[in-house]
Amino acid sequence: MLEPINVSLASLNIMTLAPMLIAIVGALVILCIDLFKGGLHKSLYVMVSLLFLLLDLGAIIDFGNGFLKNGTVLGMFDVMLIDGLAIMAQIIIVVGSMLFIPLALTSKRFHEYNYPEYFALFLFMIAGFQFMVASDNLIMIFIGLETASLALYTLIALHNRSKSFEAAVKYFTMGALAAGFFAFGSMIFYAITGSVEINQIALALAKDEYANIGFVLIAVVFLLAAIGFKISMVPFHTWTPDVYEGSSAALAGYMSIVPKIAGFVVAMRLFEFLVHSGVVWLQVVLYVAVVVTMTASNIWALVQSDVKRMLAYSSISHAGFVMAAILIGTTQSNSGLFLYWALFSFTNLGAFTMLWVNRQKNLLPGQSSDHPYEKFAGMVKTMPMAAVVMALFMLSLAGVPPFGLFWGKMYMIGSAVTGGYTVLALIMALNSAIAAYYYLKLIVFMFMKEPMPGYEQGYLLNASLSLKTIIGIAAVGTIFAVFAVNPLLKVITLFVYNSGY
Amino acid sequence: MFEAVAFYLFATLTIIMFTITVMTSQALYALTAMAAGMIFISAFFFILGADFLGAIQIIVYTGAVMALYAFGMMFFDTTRTLVEKRSNPRLVVVLGGLAAVLVVLIVLAPIVTTNINAHYPIDPSVGNSQAIGMVLFTKYLVPFELAAVMLLVAMIAGIVLAGKKMDKSLTLMADEEIALMHASSTQNTEEGAH
Amino acid sequence: MELTLNHYLVLSTILFAIGLIGVMRRKNLLMLFFATEILLNAVNIGFAAISHYRGDYTGQMFAFFIIAIAASEVAVGLGLLIVWYKRTGKIDLDQMTSMRG
Amino acid sequence: MQEHILSILIFFPALAAMLGFVVHKDSARAYGITVAAIEFFLSLWLWHLYDPMTSGMQFMEMAPLIPVFGINYLVGIDGISLFIIILATFFTLIGIASLTETRRVKDMIITLLFLEMTMIGVFAALDAIVFYVFWELSLVPMLYIIGAWGGPLRIYASVKFFLYTFTGSLVMLVGMLFMAYFYYQATGQWSFSLLEWYRLILPVNFQMWLFAAFFLGFAIKVPMFPFHTWLPYAHGQAPTIGSVILAAILLKMGTYAFVRFSLPLFPDASVAFMFPIAILAVIMIVYAAMVAYAQEDIKQVVAYSSVSHMGVIILGIFALNVEGISGSVFLMIGHGVVSGALFLLVGVLYDRRHTKLISEFGGIASVMPRYATIFGIMMMASVGLPLTINFVGEFLSLLGFYKQSHAYTLVAGTAIIVGAIYMLSAYKKVFFGTVTKEENKNLKDVNRTELLGLIPLVIVAIWLGVYPKPVLEPINNSVEAIVQLMHDKAQTPEAQKRIPNLAETGTMNSAQEAH
Amino acid sequence: MEIYLYIALFAPLVGSLFAGLFGASPKTVITGIVTSGLLFTSFISSAILLSFVMSGHTVHVEMMTWMAAGDLYIPFGFVVDQVSVTMMMVVSIVSTVVHIYSIGYMDHDKGFNRFFSYLSAFVFSMMVLVMSDNFLGLFIGWEGVGLCSWLLIGFWYHKESATWAANEAFIMNRIADLAMLIGIFMMYWSLGSLQYDVVFANIGNIPVEVVTWIGIFLFIGAMGKSAQFPLHTWLADAMEGPTPVSALIHAATMVTAGVYLVVRANPIYDLIPEVGLFIASLGAFVAMFAATMALVNRDMKRIIAYSTLSQLGYMFVAAGLGAYWVALFHLMAHAFFKALLFLGAGNVMHAMHDELDPFKMGGLKKSMKWTWILMTLASVALAGIYPLAGFFSKDLILEVAFVEQHYILYTVLLLTAGLTAFYSFRLVALIFHGNERHLEHGIHPHEAYNFVLFAMAPLGILAVIAGMAFKTPYYEMVTQLLPAIEYHIHNHTVFWIMTIGTQLFVILAIAYAYKKYAKAVKVDEKVESGFFYQLLYNQYFIPKIYDEVFSKPYLKLSKLAWKEIDLKIVDATVDGIANVIYRTGEKTHTMQDGNLSSMLRWMVIGLVVLLVLAVAFTAGYNVVNLRAM
C-alpha cells in the first residue's frame, strides 16, 4: 500500500502560481461574461484583460521584491521555479502583452476581436508562457509551451483570411514537428539522467562527467531544434516570415517578442550549463548557429518587398543576436539579453503597430501583401509625424544611437567582448551594418520618394486613440531609453546574478 | 524470453503499421494502420508494466483521436485515393533514414547509469494506476492542471475555429458591409423574436 | 538475448524516423497530422521503457502528458484544417503557397 | 549658465528644432537664422570665456547616464575642439542664411538644427559612448539632406554614405567596448571617460588591434583612401548646404577623432602605424588631386580636393609632434572654411544654371566678376597661398611630418603643385575664356544674400591666414598636452624616439641658442 | 624710421585695396593716379630709408606674431638693411614708373582699375619678399608675387593663351616653391628657427651635408622664380600679359627674386662653394641658352624675355661665384634698362596695334622718335657699352668669372655678351629702321602719350648713369652686409685687353645686327629651314617636350586614376561587396518557397546536420578517449 503523503500547505508555496492563476482566472472571467451576455463591445474585453494583466504584473513585481529578499523560490513540489529569470521574463511577457492588447481597439473592424474567446485565449496563452518560464521541469515547460502555442495558432487563424489560415496551419504543423523534437530530446535526457528537471539533469551529467556524451549531444540536438524553432533560429526559422505576414501586424509584433523571450529563458536554462560544462561541440554549434541566424536572415531581409516580412526577417536576426548571449553565457551577456529584449520589445512593437495603423482592408490592384514598401513612399509629405515616428523605430532597430535598441546592442557587443568573443562581437557589429540597409530602405521610401498614387489614403486608416497611445509609449520608450538603461541594467544584473546565471 | 518475443513481434508490427500510415496513398488504409499501430504500442506499455498508460493509449488515441480523425476524413472527403505530388522523394527517405541511423548509432551505446537514482521509484507492491495517481496529484499537480487548461484552450480553439462565425470574415469586409450585415442580423433576430 | 533499454530506444528512434519521413513526405495535411502523432507515440514508447528500466514513474508521467498534448493538438489542428478547407475546399499543402520569399 | 554652456550649446539647436515644427513654413528661414545666430553667438561667448592658456579640458560637465556600465554624459572642450565647434555654428548660420531656393525649407532647417546638435556634441563629448552617439546620430540628418534634396542619384549616394560610415563606426564601437573592458580589467570599474582612458597604458599588441578598429571608423569618415569613394557621390548629389556642412564639419569628425582618440590612447600603435598611414595620406593627396584634375563636374573637383586636403591633415596628425598636430587641427578649420566656401560658391553657380558640368561654362569671369573674384580668393586659399588660412595649416602639417620623414613629406608636398594644377585648370575652364554658351551670357552676379554668406568666409579665410594666433595658440597649448601625454605613455623605444618630449626640447632649444 | 618702413611696405597695399574697391566698375583714372601716388610715397620712404641705411644703420621691426606652434615662432618681421633697401629702391622706382606708364598704356582697357589693383598688390608682395626678416616671410612675398603674376599674365582672361600661360607660370613656380618649402623645413628642424639672423648665425654649426641640401633646395626655389633651366619655359609664355607687367614683373623685379634669395642667403652659400659653382654654371648655361633662343625669335616681347633670362643667368653666375654684391648690382642695373626696354616695346606695340612680329614693323624711328631713343639707350645699356649701366654691372660679372679663374664660364659669358648685343640690335634695327613694313598692314603708328614718355625718362636716365654713378656708394653700402670682395684684374694689360676686347666684340655684334637688319629684311629660306634655326626657333623643343612628357601623360594618368582606378577598382570593390551580399539574398531567399513541405524539410535538414555534427564529435571524442586510455 502507498503511504499517505503529508504535505504541508506552506511548503507548497501556492503563491508561486499566483501570476499564472490571475491570467487564467481572467480568461475564465471573460468566458463567463460572454456566457451571461454576448455581443459586448471588444473594448470591455480589452479593459478586463488589461486589468488582469495589471494584477498579474503586480503579482510578479511582488515576486521580484521577494526574490531580492529571499532569492529563488521553489513551489508546488519544486515544479515551479521563481528565480530572477522567471520574474524578468514574466515582466517582459506581461508588459509586452499589455502593450499588445490595446491594439485590438482599432478603428476598422477585424474578425478576431469579435470573439470574447480571443481575449480568453490570449490570457491563456500568457499563462502558458508564464508557466513555461517559471519552471525548470521539462514536462512543465512542454505543457506550458503547448498551451501557449495552441492558443497562439488559434489567435493567428482568427484573423480570418486565407493568408492567416495558411500561416496558422504552417505554424501549427511545424510546431507539431518541433513538439516531437522536444519530446524526443527530453526522452534522451531522461534516459541518461533519470530526471526531467534541468538542474537535476545538470547535476547528474556533471556527476558522471558527461560519460554519455553521445546521448547528451543527441538530446541537445533535438532540444536545440525544438527551441530553435520557437526562437526562430536558422534553419528552423522558416515559419517566421510567413506567419508574420499571415497574421495581423499587431499579433506579428507580439509574436516577435513574447514567445521568443519565453524561448530564450528556456534556452538559457537548458544550454548555459552545457556551455559552461566545457562541451566544445555546443559552443561551436551555437556559435555557428548564432552567426548563421544573424547573417542569413539579414541577407534575406535585404531582398524583401514587404515591410512586415522584412521586419519578420529582422526579428529573426535580432533573435540570433540575442542568442549570442546564451553562447557567451556570462552574467553580463545574460543581463544583456534581457536588456536587449526589453528595449527591443518597445521598438519592435512600435514598428509593428505602425504597420497595424497602416493596415488597409482591401489590397489595391497589384498589391500582393499588406505592407509593401511602396505603400510608405513619400509618407513624410502626407503624414510627417507618422513618418518620423516610423523612421525612429527603424533607426532604433538599426542600432543608431541614442535610440533604444542601440543600448541593447552596445551592451550585447560589450558582453561579447568581455566574454572573449571578439570575432563574434565584430560579426555582430557588421551584421548591424547589413541590417541598417533594409531599415534604411524604408526610410528612403518614406522620406526620399514621391507618394505612390492610390496609397495616400492608406496611412493611419486603422488608427485610433489607443493605437496612437501605444505608438506614443513605444516612441517615448525608444527615444528616452537611455535614461531607462541604468535602472534596468541594475535590476536585471541583480536578478540575473542572483539566479546564478 | 517471452518479453523478447513480444517486443520483436510488436516492434515489427508497429513499424509495419506506421510505415503503411506514412507510405500508403489510401487515406483509409493510413488511418486504419495508424489505429492498429497505436494499439500495438499500447502492448509495449503493458509489457513495460505501464498499465495505466496502456489503457490511456487505447482510450485516448484509438478512441478519441482516431475518431476525430475519422470524422475529419469524412468531412474532408479524402476517403478516395489521394494524389499527392511528390517532390524529391529520395531526399525525404535519405533524411529520415539518416536521422534514424545517426540517432541509432548513438543510442546503441550502453548508457552509463551509475549515478541515476529514481526520484519516484516504482514500487511493485502498488498498482500502477494508483501509483501514477499518487505522483500525478502531488509532484505533477500543476502540470496536470495546466494540461487541463491546455485541453480547454484546445476545446475553445476547436469550437471557435470550426464555428459558423468563421464563415464570414470581418477582416475582409469593408466597414459598410459589416454595418449592413449587422443591421440585417439584428433585423433577423428581431423578426425571430416576433 | 536479454532485452535492454537500448532496444526500446532504437525502436523509438525508428518509429520517430518513420514519423519524420511522413512529415516530410505527406502533402495531404490530414495525413501529415498522422505522422506527427507517430512522432509523439514513438517518444512515448521510449519514455515508458526508460520508466520501466529505471524504475521511475516520471517517464510514465511524461508519456501521459504527451498523450494529452497530442490530443489537444488534434483538436486545434483539425479546427484549423476545417476553416482552411471551408475557405479553399482543399487540404493539399501544395496549394498553400501564397506567402513566400 | 557658464557651467552649463556646453550643454546649452549642444541641446539648444535640438530644442529649437523641435519648436521649429510649429513655426509656419514661410517664416522658417527667419527662425532658422535667428536660432543659428544665437547659437553662433553662444559659441563666440564660449570662446570669450575660454582660457587660452590652459591646456586641459574646460567647461566640463558630468551627468550620470548609465553609471553601471561606466557611461556618463561628460562634455568638455579644449583648444582643439573649441574652434571646430565655432566653425560648426558658423557654418550652420551661413548655411541656413544661404538657403534661398530650397524646397520644403522648414524641413531642411529643422534637419540642419538637429545636425548642428550632433556636430557640437561630437566635438564636445569626452565620453566615448556619448561621442559615439553623436557621431552616429549625425549620419541621420545628413542622410536626409542628401536623400531628400539631392540630385538624381541621391538615394544611392545617401544610402552609400550612411552604410559606409555606419559600418566603419560599428567596428569602432567594438574597439571602444574593448577599450572599456581593458579599463575594467585594469581598475575593476567600467568607464568610457576619455580622460580616464588616457591614464591607461595598454600593451603594445592590444594597441595595434584597437588602433586598427578605431582607424576603420575614423578613416571612413575622413575619408581616407581607399575608403573615400562615398564622398564624391555624397558631394556630387548633395544639395549645396549638404556639401558645405559635410565638407566643413562632418569630415573633420574623423580627423578630430584621430587626435582625440587614436593618438593619446595608442601612442605606440600610432608610431607603428605612422608610415602605413603616411603612405595612405600621400596616396590621398596625390591620387585624389589627380582624380580631381580629371573631373568633369566642378563640384566633384572640390569634393576630391577635400580628399586631397584631408590627406595633408592626416599627415600632420601623424607627424606626432606639436607643429604637425597643431597644424593639422588648424588646417581642419582652414579646410572647413575654404571647402565650405567653395561648395557654397559652386552652389551659387548651380542655382543659376542647374548644372555643374565644367564644359557648360567658360568666360564666367566677365559675366560675374564679383563671383569670380570671391571664387578666386577661395581657390587661392585652397591651394594654400600664404596669408590665407590654409597655408598656416598646410605648412605646419608638412613641417611637422618632415621631422618624421623627409621623403614622404617631399611627395606629400606635391600637394601644393597638384593642388594648383586641378584648381587652376578648373578655374580657367569655368571663368576664363570667352562666353560661349548663350545661357551664360546673362547670368546674374552674386546677390546680396549670397554675399552675406560669402564675405564672412572670405574675411575669415584671410584674417586667420594673416593672424592665426588667436586660434593657433589655444590649439597649440592643448596639442602640447596631448603630445606630452603620448610621450609619457610611449613604451617602445621607437615611439619614445618619435614622439618628442616637450619637457626636454625646451632646454634643447636654449642649448642650441647658446651655440 | 619704422614709420617709413611701414609706409614703404603698406602704401602699395593701400593702393591695391583702393583700386580693388573699384575693381568691377568701369575705368576710373583716379585709381591709376592714387596707386601711382602711393607708390611714389613708397619710393620716397624707401629713399629715406636708403639714406638712413647708408649712414650705417639698419631698421628691424617685428610687427606681430604670425605663426607660433610648438617651437616654431614666426613673426611678421621686417628688416631694412643694405641688401633689402637696394631691392626696395629698385622695386619702388620701377614700379612707380610702370604705374604711371600704365595709366597711358591701359587707357582703353576695360579692366583698368583691376589692373592697378593687381599691380599694386604685386608691389606689396615684392616689398614683403625683400623686406621680410625670415624665410617664411620671404615665402609669403614669394607666393604673393606668384599670385599677382598669375593674375597679371592672365589679365586678359578671355585669351586662351594668356590664361594658359598664367597657369603654367603659377604651376611651374609651385614646383620650385615645394623645393623651397623643403629647404625651409630642413632649416627649421636643424636650426630651430627661420629668422635670418638666427639661421645665419648658426648655419656653421650644423653638418655640411645638411647645409648643402638646404642650399640646393633653396636654389631650386630660386630657379623657379627666376626661370632658370629647366623651369624657364613659363617666362617666355608670360609675355601674354600686358607689357607693363612684363616690364615690372618679368624683367625688373619678380624674376630677380631668385637672385635676391641667393644673395640674401649668402652665409649659407658661402659654406657650400660646390653648390655655388653649380649655380654659376647653370647661370652661364642659361645665359647662353636663352640668348640663342632670342637670336631667331620673331616676337618682340619674347626676345626681350629671353634676354631677361639670359641676364638672370649672368646674375646667378655672379651670385654662384660668391660675388653677391655684383649680382645684386647687375640686378639693379638690369632692372632699369630692361624695364625701359619693355616699356618701349609697349609703346611700339600700342602703336602697332598689338603687333609683335618685328618683321612686320620697320622705320618707326620717324613716328616714334622718343621711344626709339629710349629703346636704343636701353639696348646699348644691355649690350654693356661704356659708360652705360650694363658696362659696369655686366662686364663686372665677366671679370668675376675671370678673376675666380672659371675661364669656361668667362668664355661662355663673353660669347653671350656678343649674342646679347646682336639680338638687341636686331630688334632695334628691325623695329626702328628700314622700310615701314607695317604700312602694308594698314597701321599708322603714333608716339605714346607725353606723360608716358616722361614717366619713362627716369629709367632712361638711370640706364645711363646707374652704373657709373652708383657703383661706388653702392659698393660701400652693401658690403657692410655682403662679403666685400673687390674683383680686379691686377694685370693692367690683361685688364685693358679684356675690356677693350669685350667692347669691340660687342660693337661688332651690334654692327652686324644693323647691317643685317637695318636696311632690307631678307628672309633666308635655307637658314630658316635649317636644323639649328628650327631648334632655336622652337625653343629647343622644350615646351613641346614638356607637353608630351608631363602635361599630356598627367592628364591621361588622371583620367585613368579616376575612370579606371577610382570608379572601376576602389568604388567597384565597395559596391561589389554590397552587391555580393544583396545577390546572395536574392539567390537564396527562394529557399523560402512558401511550401510547407519544404519548410518541414528544412527543419529536418537542420536536425540532421546537427546530428551529423553530434555523431562526428562523439566519434572523435571516443577516439581521443580511447587513445588516452
How would you concisely characterize the structure shown here?
Chain B contains seven helices and no strands. Chain B is an all-alpha fold and 194 residues long. Chain B is extended, with a radius of gyration of 25 Å.
**H and E string of chain D:** HHEEHHHHHHHHHHHHHHHHHHHHHH
Shape of chain E: elongated
Counting DSSP E segments of at least 2 residues, the number of strands of chain D comes to 2
The proportion of strand residues of chain E reads under 5%
Query: For this entry, what is the oligomeric state of its chains?
Result: heteropentamer
* Spatial sequence of strands, sheet with the most strands of chain D: 1-2
* Widest sheet, order of strands of chain E: 1-2
SSE-based structural type of chain D: mainly alpha
Query: Helix coverage percent of residues of chain D?
Result: over 70%
Distance between the termini of chain E: 103 Å
Ranges of chain E where pLDDT stays below 50 over 5 or more residues in a row are none
Tally of helical runs of chain E: 24
Class by SSE composition of chain E:
mainly alpha
**For the residues shown, what is the average pLDDT of chain D?**
90
Structure overview:
With 194 residues, chain B is mainly α. Chain B has helices at residues 2-23, 27-47, 51-76, 89-107, 128-136, 141-162, 175-193. Chain C starts with a helix and ends in a 13-residue tail after the last helix. Chain D has 24 helices and two strands. A two-stranded antiparallel sheet of chain D has the order 1-2. In chain D, helix 7 packs across helix 10, helix 10 crosses helix 14 (298-317) and helix 15 packs antiparallel against helix 17 (369-382). Mean pLDDT of chain D is 90; it is low at 507-515.
